[in-house]
Design brief:
Helices cover about 40% and strands about 20% of the residues. It contains 19 helices and 18 strands. Strands 1, 2, 3, 4, 5, 6, 7, 8, 9 and 10 form a ten-stranded mixed β-sheet that branches. Strands 11-12-13-18-17 form a five-stranded mixed β-sheet, with helices on one face. A three-stranded antiparallel β-sheet has the order 14-15-16.
């Protein structure tokens, strides 16, 4: 059974049980200032778990693409990836433990075909300090489920993870009770730090055992389900959000939610009975392609191939969702992923053009299940190939320079020079130093930070007197250009594709300036198309109106456009530009205003929309300057 088949079986299984299938959220979250990326299946649905009404009902199922940049250093072992899919099912005040646990157990055993003898579970031990009882209800359900399969399921009191290395897995042990550090969910992480009004609850994890793996005692004397030796692998977790913190302590929520997350890659690895997730059907073909173009084997170059496969897959999906490599925020992480992949390809002897050979393999693995991958296939390849070409020009020179600088170790100033001149991320320089056994100066980080601060000061001085982003005033001309910007944004997406995302704007009384994601120069024909579309909408005299919506509903359900990287409050103002005779708006964007009342005002005095210049702003970002003349 392939990972693709497991994903589809999961969606169908819960659809048969009354769940509505919802689309994945993009990797770059719209309304979460705490993180750069969508890092879990729960993250996009948090507003609904906290009480908002979901338009698709109280039973939901999805497969959410996720990215955790904090795992980048872990990639290279047999189970860590920065990019992964989380299978999720959700009950928003509907069913609870009695339905959830039998369903997920039956899915894993009867649908996927996992051996129930290899499954172990954990439950919440309780918290006496907060008067929260032990989750005996979940344990009783699990015991009955195992009993029906003829499997003894003894309960094991563990407590902390550290205690687990002393307790181990006694004979017949199947249900393990851990404390709040392992089996309690809340946004703050720790039960004692939860603020008043915050919901939370116990969770119950499912582990798969690879019984052919010997426990490594470097982790502790005995193995247990939460051990890191590799014998056990977590494949799913059911969170039961049933409590809320009050001034006087915890009390039960009137409506209790279920949040399940199961790692697709890990479930597929369990199906293969292999602890190596890189052997599953959505990763192994990437490895096979690397073997083909490098002439080297996975067994002899395991780490390099794992890093490349993971990092290119993550970069490809970031590109699908409109991110381009850059030196800021999400673009910086994407660039770091790409450059690490290119560096490891260098170790394989692949010194050019490997992205254009590998990325199509990745695209083909997901094209049938994610239409946006198929629709953006060529653009994604172009974005990543461009980054490869740009970095390869400096990689060899940078490595040679590192060798010259390393005679007496690397200082922070030299690491900055590698960054500033050759585009080496700090992490790449320190990784290379470790690989080549090059020492770092004791205060290298402080030395590097001083040079960075000096560079920022130079940049700030150079930027004095330049116009800052956004709307420069509130006059009628400002409003006209602001309205024209909305029309042009949608026209660009119509002509170039949905990958076009706003990356900044600057509006004066004389002109508009607009930055957007696109990897190549627009042709004269494309520019003319955009101008014609904007002028057509001006001639239609679209009504410009606004309405307020909860942010998550506006973005995820109404699909209102927002600016890249903007952080919104709980409620957003959405501007609609629509002809009375048409069913759908031409433009529908999150914006604070102000705008004109109808687009015909842009044509006063016989003026029309005209693009004066289209140019590069930064890597993967284009800039347009336009006027009404």
């Amino acid at each position: 059974m392939t990972a693709q088949e497991i994903r589809q079986k999961y969606l169908d299984y819960y659809k048969e049980r009354g769940h509505n299938v919802i689309a994945r959220a993009q990797l770059v979250p719209y309304n979460d200032p705490t993180t750069l990326f969508t890092g879990s299946g729960m993250q996009p649905l948090l507003p609904y778990l906290l009480g908002e009404v979901h338009p698709d009902g109280s039973r939901l199922v999805d497969s959410q693409t996720c990215l955790r940049a904090q795992d980048i250093e872990e990639v290279g072992d047999n189970r860590h990836t920065t990019f992964f899919e989380m299978l999720g099912n959700w009950s928003l005040g509907d069913y609870f433990k009695q339905d959830q646990l039998p369903w997920v157990f039956s899915f894993l055993v009867d649908e996927v075909g996992l051996d129930p003898h290899k499954l172990y579970v954990t439950c919440f031990q309780g918290d006496a300090a907060n008067n929260i009882p032990k989750d005996t209800e979940a344990a009783d359900i699990w015991r009955n489920l195992f009993d029906r399969r003829g499997i003894e399921a003894r309960e094991v009191e563990v407590g902390s993870e550290e205690n687990g290395y002393q307790v181990g897995v006694p004979e017949g042990g199947r249900i393990f009770f851990y404390d709040a550090s392992k089996n309690w969910w809340c946004r703050g992480g720790k039960i004692g730090d939860m603020p008043v009004g915050e919901p939370g609850g116990p969770d119950s994890e499912i582990f798969y055992e690879f019984d052919f793996i010997e426990h490594d005692t470097k982790w502790g004397p005995k193995c247990h389900p939460n051990c890191d030796c590799g014998r056990f692998m977590e494949i799913g977790n059911s969170v039961f959000m049933e409590y809320v913190r009050r001034e006087t302590g915890f009390e039960k929520l009137p409506k209790q939610n279920v949040d399940f997350g199961g790692g697709l890659e890990r479930i597929a690895a369990a199906k293969l009975n292999s602890p190596d997730v890189f052997k599953i059907s959505i990763l192994q073909p990437i490895i096979a392609k690397l073997e083909e173009i490098s002439g080297k084997s996975y067994d002899s170059h395991t780490e390099s191939m794992r890093v490349i496969a993971d990092h290119l897959r993550a970069s490809a999906f970031l590109a699908v969702d409109g991110t381009a490599p850059s030196n800021k925020t999400q673009g910086y992480v994407m660039r770091r992923l790409m450059r690490r992949a290119i560096r490891f390809a260098f170790d394989l002897g692949i010194e050019q053009n490997f992205v254009e050979q590998v990325v199509p393999v990745i695209a083909d693995l997901y094209a049938n299940d994610y239409p946006e991958v198929r629709g953006n296939r060529e653009r994604v390849i172009e974005v990543l190939v461009k980054e490869e070409k740009a970095f390869r020009q400096t990689l060899r020179k940078g490595l040679q320079m590192m060798q010259k600088l390393s005679a007496s170790g690397l200082s922070g100033e030299e690491i900055f020079a590698l960054y500033d001149t050759y585009g080496f991320p700090v992490e790449l320089s320190t990784e290379e130093a470790f690989k080549q056994n090059i020492s770092l100066s004791e205060n290298w980080r402080q030395e590097f930070d001083v040079k960075m601060a000096e560079q920022r000061q130079r940049s700030q001085t150079a930027a004095k007197g330049t116009f800052k982003g956004g709307l420069g005033g509130q006059t009628l001309q400002h409003k006209k250009y602001h309205t024209a910007t909305h029309l042009m944004y949608q026209a660009l997406r119509t002509v170039l594709g949905d990958h076009v995302i706003q990356h900044g704007s600057n509006i004066t009384e004389e002109r508009l300036r607009f930055d957007f994601s696109h990897s190549e120069k627009m042709t004269p024909e494309q520019i003319k198309q955009v101008e014609d579309i904007v002028n057509e909408q001006i001639a239609k005299d679209l009504a410009v109106t606004w309405e307020e919506h909860p942010t998550s509903y506006a973005i995820n359900e109404l699909h209102v456009l927002g600016a890249f990287g903007d952080r919104y409050g709980d409620i957003v103002k959405c501007y609609r530009m629509q002809a009375a005779s048409e069913d759908k708006p031409f433009s529908f964007e999150i914006c604070g205003g102000p705008h004109v009342d109808h687009t015909g005002q842009l044509a006063e005095e016989g003026k029309s929309f005209k693009i004066l210049k289209e140019e590069s702003s930064s890597a993967g970002i284009r800039r347009i300057k336009a006027v009404l003349q």
